[in-house]
Protein backbone atom coordinates (compact mmCIF):
# COMPACT_ATOMS: atom_id res chain seq x y z
CA UNK A 1 0.00 0.00 0.00
CA UNK A 2 1.41 3.36 -1.06
CA UNK A 3 1.68 6.16 1.49
CA UNK A 4 -0.43 9.22 0.69
CA UNK A 5 1.45 12.46 0.29
CA UNK A 6 0.09 15.43 2.25
CA UNK A 7 -1.61 18.20 0.32
CA UNK A 8 0.39 21.40 0.42
CA UNK A 9 -2.80 23.45 0.08
CA UNK A 10 -4.06 22.21 3.46
CA UNK A 11 -0.90 23.48 5.17
CA UNK A 12 -0.86 26.71 3.16
CA UNK A 13 -4.42 27.59 4.12
CA UNK A 14 -4.23 26.47 7.77
CA UNK A 15 -0.95 28.17 8.64
CA UNK A 16 -1.64 31.17 6.40
CA UNK A 17 -4.90 31.77 8.28
CA UNK A 18 -3.12 31.36 11.62
CA UNK A 19 -0.48 33.89 10.57
CA UNK A 20 -3.17 36.27 9.31
CA UNK A 21 -5.06 36.06 12.61
CA UNK A 22 -1.89 36.60 14.66
CA UNK A 23 -1.08 39.66 12.52
CA UNK A 24 -4.57 41.04 13.10
CA UNK A 25 -4.26 40.43 16.84
CA UNK A 26 -0.99 42.38 16.92
CA UNK A 27 -2.69 45.23 15.01
CA UNK A 28 -5.67 45.22 17.38
CA UNK A 29 -3.37 45.39 20.42
CA UNK A 30 -1.55 48.32 18.79
CA UNK A 31 -4.89 50.06 18.18
CA UNK A 32 -6.23 49.44 21.68
CA UNK A 33 -3.01 50.74 23.25
CA UNK A 34 -3.05 53.83 20.97
CA UNK A 35 0.26 52.89 19.35
CA UNK A 36 -1.24 52.40 15.89
CA UNK A 37 -0.26 55.83 14.56
CA UNK A 38 3.37 55.71 15.64
CA UNK A 39 4.48 52.49 13.97
CA UNK A 40 6.27 50.88 16.87
CA UNK A 41 9.37 48.80 16.31
CA UNK A 42 7.91 46.37 18.84
CA UNK A 43 4.92 45.64 16.59
CA UNK A 44 7.19 45.18 13.58
CA UNK A 45 9.48 42.88 15.51
CA UNK A 46 6.58 40.84 16.90
CA UNK A 47 5.04 40.55 13.44
CA UNK A 48 8.34 39.40 11.95
CA UNK A 49 8.96 36.86 14.72
CA UNK A 50 5.40 35.53 14.34
CA UNK A 51 5.88 35.21 10.58
CA UNK A 52 9.18 33.35 10.92
CA UNK A 53 7.82 31.05 13.64
CA UNK A 54 4.55 30.19 11.88
CA UNK A 55 6.08 29.69 8.43
CA UNK A 56 8.88 27.49 9.77
CA UNK A 57 6.44 25.54 11.95
CA UNK A 58 4.06 25.03 9.01
CA UNK A 59 6.86 23.86 6.72
CA UNK A 60 8.15 21.52 9.42
CA UNK A 61 4.66 20.08 9.97
CA UNK A 62 4.40 19.41 6.23
CA UNK A 63 7.77 17.66 6.37
CA UNK A 64 6.61 15.48 9.30
CA UNK A 65 3.47 14.51 7.37
CA UNK A 66 5.55 13.77 4.27
CA UNK A 67 7.48 10.90 5.88
CA UNK A 68 10.25 13.32 6.92
CA UNK A 69 10.98 14.47 3.38
CA UNK A 70 10.99 18.04 2.12
CA UNK A 71 12.38 19.51 -1.07
CA UNK A 72 13.49 23.11 -1.32
CA UNK A 73 10.75 23.69 -3.91
CA UNK A 74 8.09 22.39 -1.52
CA UNK A 75 9.38 24.62 1.28
CA UNK A 76 9.30 27.70 -0.95
CA UNK A 77 5.84 26.84 -2.28
CA UNK A 78 4.54 26.41 1.26
CA UNK A 79 6.18 29.59 2.59
CA UNK A 80 5.03 31.80 -0.26
CA UNK A 81 1.55 30.27 -0.14
CA UNK A 82 1.18 30.83 3.61
CA UNK A 83 2.53 34.38 3.25
CA UNK A 84 0.04 35.09 0.45
CA UNK A 85 -2.93 33.84 2.49
CA UNK A 86 -1.79 35.86 5.52
CA UNK A 87 -1.14 38.91 3.31
CA UNK A 88 -4.64 38.76 1.84
CA UNK A 89 -6.18 38.44 5.32
CA UNK A 90 -4.08 41.39 6.48
CA UNK A 91 -5.16 43.51 3.51
CA UNK A 92 -8.85 42.73 4.14
CA UNK A 93 -8.42 43.68 7.80
CA UNK A 94 -6.61 46.92 6.89
CA UNK A 95 -9.32 47.87 4.40
CA UNK A 96 -11.97 47.29 7.08
CA UNK A 97 -9.85 49.23 9.57
CA UNK A 98 -9.29 52.33 7.40
CA UNK A 99 -12.83 52.38 5.99
CA UNK A 100 -14.96 51.52 9.05
CA UNK A 101 -13.04 51.29 12.33
CA UNK A 102 -10.79 54.35 11.98
CA UNK A 103 -11.85 56.25 8.83
CA UNK A 104 -9.51 59.18 9.49
CA UNK A 105 -6.46 56.92 10.01
CA UNK A 106 -4.80 57.86 6.72
CA UNK A 107 -5.26 61.56 7.43
CA UNK A 108 -3.76 61.11 10.90
CA UNK A 109 -0.79 59.29 9.35
CA UNK A 110 -0.32 62.04 6.77
CA UNK A 111 -0.42 64.73 9.47
CA UNK A 112 2.14 62.85 11.57
CA UNK A 113 4.41 62.49 8.53
CA UNK A 114 3.97 66.19 7.70
CA UNK A 115 4.88 67.21 11.25
CA UNK A 116 7.95 64.96 11.18
CA UNK A 117 8.99 66.30 7.77
CA UNK A 118 8.74 69.89 9.01
CA UNK A 119 10.71 68.98 12.14
CA UNK A 120 13.44 67.12 10.21
CA UNK A 121 13.67 69.65 7.34
CA UNK A 122 12.97 73.14 8.71
CA UNK A 123 14.33 74.77 5.54
CA UNK A 124 11.79 73.18 3.18
CA UNK A 125 9.56 75.64 1.40
CA UNK A 126 5.78 75.43 1.63
CA UNK A 127 5.72 74.34 -2.01
CA UNK A 128 8.17 71.50 -1.34
CA UNK A 129 6.15 70.39 1.68
CA UNK A 130 2.92 70.38 -0.33
CA UNK A 131 4.56 68.41 -3.15
CA UNK A 132 5.85 65.84 -0.68
CA UNK A 133 2.44 65.51 0.96
CA UNK A 134 0.72 65.10 -2.42
CA UNK A 135 3.18 62.34 -3.33
CA UNK A 136 2.51 60.72 0.04
CA UNK A 137 -1.25 60.80 -0.56
CA UNK A 138 -0.80 59.06 -3.92
CA UNK A 139 1.20 56.26 -2.35
CA UNK A 140 -1.16 55.87 0.60
CA UNK A 141 -4.21 54.95 -1.45
CA UNK A 142 -5.82 51.68 -0.36
CA UNK A 143 -4.88 49.89 -3.58
CA UNK A 144 -1.23 50.94 -3.49
CA UNK A 145 -0.83 50.09 0.20
CA UNK A 146 -2.59 46.74 -0.36
CA UNK A 147 -0.30 45.87 -3.26
CA UNK A 148 2.81 46.88 -1.31
CA UNK A 149 1.62 44.87 1.68
CA UNK A 150 1.07 41.70 -0.35
CA UNK A 151 4.36 42.06 -2.24
CA UNK A 152 6.18 42.61 1.06
CA UNK A 153 4.52 39.57 2.59
CA UNK A 154 5.44 37.43 -0.44
CA UNK A 155 9.03 38.66 -0.35
CA UNK A 156 9.44 37.85 3.35
CA UNK A 157 7.70 34.50 2.79
CA UNK A 158 10.18 33.70 0.03
CA UNK A 159 13.23 34.63 2.11
CA UNK A 160 12.03 32.82 5.25
CA UNK A 161 10.99 29.68 3.38
CA UNK A 162 14.20 29.67 1.33
CA UNK A 163 16.35 29.76 4.46
CA UNK A 164 14.09 27.31 6.31
CA UNK A 165 13.93 25.02 3.30
CA UNK A 166 17.72 24.98 2.90
CA UNK A 167 18.05 24.01 6.56
CA UNK A 168 15.21 21.45 6.67
CA UNK A 169 15.38 19.91 3.22
CA UNK A 170 15.64 16.17 2.97
CA UNK A 171 15.14 14.74 -0.49
CA UNK A 172 13.38 11.42 -1.05
CA UNK A 173 15.79 9.59 -3.35
CA UNK A 174 13.46 6.57 -3.59
CA UNK A 175 10.47 8.43 -5.01
Task: Give a description of the structure.
The protein is mainly alpha-helical and 175 residues long. It has one domain (8-102, 141-168). The protein is 78% helix and 0% strand. It is built from six helices and no strands. It has helices at residues 8-32, 41-65, 72-101, 105-120, 126-139, 142-168. Helix 1 (8-32) runs antiparallel to helix 2 and helix 2 crosses helix 3 (72-101). The longest helix is centred in the middle third of the chain and has 30 residues, at 72-101.
Care to give the gist of this entry?
Helix content is 78%, strand content 0%. It contains 6 helices and no strands.
Feature tags:
0% strand; single chain; 175 residues; mainly alpha; elongated
Amino acid sequence: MEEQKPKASKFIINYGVILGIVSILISVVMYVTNLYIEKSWIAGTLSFIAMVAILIYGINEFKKNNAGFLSLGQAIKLGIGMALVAGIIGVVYNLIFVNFIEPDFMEQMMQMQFDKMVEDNPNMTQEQLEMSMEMGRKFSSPWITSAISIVGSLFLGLIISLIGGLIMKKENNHA
